[in-house]
Write a structure and sequence with these properties.
By secondary structure, the chain is of the alpha+beta class. 16% of the residues lie in helices and 32% in strands. The strands form two sheets. An eight-stranded mixed sheet has the order 1-2-3-5-6-8-7-10, with helices on one face. A two-stranded antiparallel sheet has the order 4-9. The longest helix is centred in the middle third of the chain and has 12 residues, at 98-109. It is globular and about 50 Å long.
């Protein structure tokens, strides 16, 4: 008896569906109302923001979020550059190359882009968006980095933030980033390792090592 092949679907939740709540949440947390996230989506969706879910046998097990640089939640700029905010597949869904399916969905959707950028972490305590993962699994390369420490937690531990780049054409110009702005963290996603908590009054939550 042959084993039944898994049913895999990729759904864009910015287009409206029963999965609409996933615009505001992810696997790292239960649904909460996040005003900064709502404000960000109001600005970003009209400018080309996408969040896509990977559904395996009717269960949400993966996601990817990407947007043109001019509407990114990261301080990254570049001509016709697409910024990937995140890509994530649950461990229980490993073994089906689902991460690569999500990634190629973005590449196919944005074939006219000059290239793709993201941020990756090295020596950070979070298991998410590791530099080696971005390089080995998806082909990104680090084109710049800075070493920082968190001013609110794990304060003795330095880690690196990398600007990652995957050109789509031979004449593509690499993106640029605002390192000073990045020291403030990001506020569009509660689950991101660089998230700036709303309750803190500090403008910069990171400092250079």
């Amino acid at each position: 008896m042959t084993e039944k092949r898994p049913e895999v679907k990729i759904l864009d939740v910015t287009e409206g569906s029963e999965y609409q709540r996933w615009l505001y949440t992810c696997f790292a947390m239960s649904f909460v109302k996040h005003e900064k996230r709502r404000e960000y989506l109001v600005r970003a969706i009209p400018k080309g923001f996408h969040k896509k879910l990977l559904i395996l046998n009717d269960e949400v097990v993966g996601q990817i979020e990407y947007v043109p640089a001019e509407a990114s939640g990261f301080p990254i700029v570049g001509d016709n550059v697409i910024v990937m905010h995140c890509i994530w597949v649950l461990r229980k869904a490993k073994g089906h190359n689902l991460g690569k399916k999500l990634f190629h969905e973005m590449l196919e959707n944005k074939r006219s882009a000059s290239g793709f950028a993201t941020l990756a972490l090295e020596n950070h305590w979070s298991p998410w968006m590791k530099r080696w993962q971005m390089e080995k699994l998806f082909g990104f390369k680090s084109i710049d980095s800075m070493e920082v420490r968190h001013r609110l937690k794990q304060m003795r531990e330095c880690f690196e933030i990398h600007l990652m780049w995957l050109p789509n054409r031979s004449d593509s110009k690499p993106p640029r980033w605002d390192k000073t702005k990045l020291l403030e963290g990001v506020d569009f996603c509660l689950a991101h390792p660089l998230y700036h908590p709303a309750k803190t009054r500090q403008k910069e939550i990171f400092e250079r090592c």
